[in-house]
Amino acid sequence: MPGAARPAVRASGVKLAVRDLTMCYENGHTALSNLNLSVSAGEMVVVLGSNGSGKSTFMKCVVGLNRPTGGSVKVAGRDLAALSGEALRRARLPLALISQHANLVKRRSVLANVCCGALGRHRTLATALGRLPRKEIEPALGYLDEVGLLHLARQRAGTLSGGQAQRVAVARALAQRPDVLLADEPVASLDPEAADEVMRLLRRLATEDGLAVVCVLHQPELAARYADRLVGLRSGLLEFDQPASEVSSQQIASLYIAEAS
Ligand SMILES: Nc1ncnc2c1ncn2[C@@H]1O[C@H](COP(=O)(O)OP(=O)(O)O)[C@@H](O)[C@H]1O
Ligand SMILES: [Mg+2]
């Protein structure tokens, strides 16, 4: 059986700690205000909120695609704001982000796409030129096995269905060996069955492999089914952060009611 054994369950404890996170864009728009959120190993948190409530801004601030204008992001206890250059790059390696679209390289094989996730851990001339490190192939097969797509390893990525492509994107994220997996609307372009499959996968990665998972969703019923905790964002403010079983339908509905102007 090719592929690596399932990765060891990660150490427990808080993996992502966000304190007073604020993001004011250059045009003066404040998209996030003093947001606090902690996510532990093995936990799955789903973020809900209407369009424009700041969900993607939050994800981008955490992974460093946005530079927050205030507050701190700690990953595995290290404050990213205190780091720069190579130290910052390394401190961000435990963070992997998947998005609505899998963004695979369509003409390359599924396996090659998964191996790409490992490139951040290799900084050689060969990898800079796009060559895949041979020693990453075996683990990449393991990640494909983990997402149930080992049989498609040699297939061109462009031939996959939307649901398969998103599971390959998850395998590519796993090749980064993250502690924290961020997923920004990962099922928004999938049919209900494929969406459920991706959500089951994310849930399993939290429960069995100990990843801290933060997932943005637009489907409250999927959120309630899979999340440990629900976080509600409204106009860049945290409305609630509670165990999923304690969040009422009124609380969820309140996120989607337009503000009085
Ligand atoms: N680069 C940007 N410059 C200015 N405003 C932005 C930028 N990106 C997002 N915004 C604004 O910030 C708010 C939150 O956006 P976003 O985080 O994308 O929301 P969501 O993901 O919840 O739909 C929106 O009002 C959006 O228009
Ligand atoms: Mg968004």
UniProtKB/TrEMBL annotation:
<dbReference type="InterPro" id="IPR012693">
    <property type="entry name" value="ABC_transpr_PhnC"/>
</dbReference>
<protein>
    <submittedName>
        <fullName>Phosphonate ABC transporter</fullName>
    </submittedName>
</protein>
<keyword id="KW-0547">Nucleotide-binding</keyword>
<dbReference type="InterPro" id="IPR027417">
    <property type="entry name" value="P-loop_NTPase"/>
</dbReference>
<keyword id="KW-1278">Translocase</keyword>
<dbReference type="GO" id="GO:0016020">
    <property type="term" value="C:membrane"/>
</dbReference>
<keyword id="KW-0997">Cell inner membrane</keyword>
<dbReference type="InterPro" id="IPR050086">
    <property type="entry name" value="MetN_ABC_transporter-like"/>
</dbReference>
<keyword id="KW-0067">ATP-binding</keyword>
<keyword id="KW-1003">Cell membrane</keyword>
<dbReference type="GO" id="GO:0015416">
    <property type="term" value="F:ABC-type phosphonate transporter activity"/>
</dbReference>
<keyword id="KW-0813">Transport</keyword>
<dbReference type="GO" id="GO:0016887">
    <property type="term" value="F:ATP hydrolysis activity"/>
</dbReference>
<dbReference type="InterPro" id="IPR017871">
    <property type="entry name" value="ABC_transporter-like_CS"/>
</dbReference>
<dbReference type="InterPro" id="IPR003593">
    <property type="entry name" value="AAA+_ATPase"/>
</dbReference>
<keyword id="KW-0472">Membrane</keyword>
<dbReference type="InterPro" id="IPR003439">
    <property type="entry name" value="ABC_transporter-like_ATP-bd"/>
</dbReference>
<dbReference type="Pfam" id="PF00005">
    <property type="entry name" value="ABC_tran"/>
</dbReference>
<feature type="domain" description="ABC transporter">
    <location>
        <begin position="16"/>
        <end position="260"/>
    </location>
</feature>
<dbReference type="GO" id="GO:0005524">
    <property type="term" value="F:ATP binding"/>
</dbReference>
